[in-house]
Description:
Order of helices and strands: HEEHEEEEEHEHHEEHEEEHHEEEHHHHH
GO biological process, one term: glutamine biosynthetic process
Shape: globular
Domain GS catalytic: 119-449
Structural class: alpha+beta
Number of helices: 13
CATH topology of the largest domain: Creatine Kinase, Chain A, domain 2
CATH superfamily of the largest domain: Glutamine synthetase/guanido kinase, catalytic domain
InterPro entries: Gln_synt_N_sf, Gln_synth/guanido_kin_cat_dom, Gln_synth_cat_dom
Family: Belongs to the glutamine synthetase family.
Radius of gyration: 21 Å
Pfam family, one: Gln-synt_C
Amino acid sequence: MARASDATGTSAADDLARDLRANGVRLIAGSLTDPAGVTRAKYVPVSRLGAFERSGMGVSPSWSVFCVDSGIAFTPTIGVTGDHRIRIDRRDVRVIDDGIGWAPGNLNDQAGTPVPLCPRSLLARAEQSAADRGLSARVGAELECTMVALDGGPATTDPWSPYGIRTSLDRSALLVDLAETAETAGLDVEQIHTEYGHDQLEVSLAPTTPVAAADAVILTRIVLGRVAARHGLRISFAPVPFDGAAGNGAHLHLSLADAAGPLFSGGDGPHGIRTAGGSAIAGVVEALPDLLAVYAGSVLSAARLRPGNWAGAAACWGLENREAAVRFVAATAGSPHGANAELKLIDPSANPYLAAAAFLGSALRGIDLGLDLPPEIPENPAQSDVATRPLPSDQRAALDAFEYSSVAAELLGPEVVEALVAVRRYELKTYGELTLADTTRALRLAWSC
Length: 449
């Protein structure tokens, strides 16, 4: 279903509810994605759509420190008291399954003001911050995931051919269902293919405004999960789904433009990068060690983020360099959306709203500070003579760097820093001493929708 009517007022919500009911919708889900990267939801009968929009549905503040399992990582400021509200906008409602409509939610206080722990509102502020500087931002997303059996084991044991026509045609019914369901849900899918890893899929989404892009990531995850279920499968968004398997990425592409045009093309710098565009890339690269916990902070993330995995494990940038954290895509005929910077080290355990806010915010910070574009790494960083900024060596180091980072506090706020550190430290305490095989088994479906 396309985006709902732009009309306002209670009567408009009632009209939309009648339209949705006529189309078979009986329940409306409003979802939040928490700092642990897990998407959670509340449902109301379609007749209560207006109430979901006006006053919202109550949730405990502890939702912001729910962990990947059933644990709760209480902090000094997040405990058992208080109340927040999930509020949705009826214009965002999509039909996602038989009888079910969905909309992304904002986390507000009881007066209707976004709370500091609301990732979606945080990204909206970053988007507005770009606009206040005279910049427009566009974000595109790539989602990698792994098909698994209903019991959580491998979906197939047949030999796998990366990007192979056989492996994709063997799943043609699922892929066609995915394309049709995504279109019905209003997703702008540009590409679907079987990936390098065994039973791995990738879906690429068209660039759009930052908040809409993060919304689309969550909606795509939901659609993938529902389609897979219809075909007797489940979808894993774990950074590493099985010990020894290829990892799943959640790459984001960022482009910026001002009144004079794109910042990443039309200039005198390398590959046409303008001065402000170079500063944006510099800001992203400089902040990577401080923000790694946002992009790849789960207990499984380090197993993916290794040299040789094409995961962007080196804090540097380079033209079409898949080993660099920032892969630059130049404005050519092969890039229909123009030049952009792709942040490769993000994995699906990241909250996409927080990851996009950190990505955009660090680019804007680089522009504000007038940072110089660092030297390009045109080859494999592991074989380069050019020194790169080291990333934290493990998840504990990444969390320490994030917790005490002034950049993280500036871009995300101390409340988000506190909550994210709490849930990730819980993961390390609970799963950090297990073998990778045991951890992947325990968390294979933790981030599934």
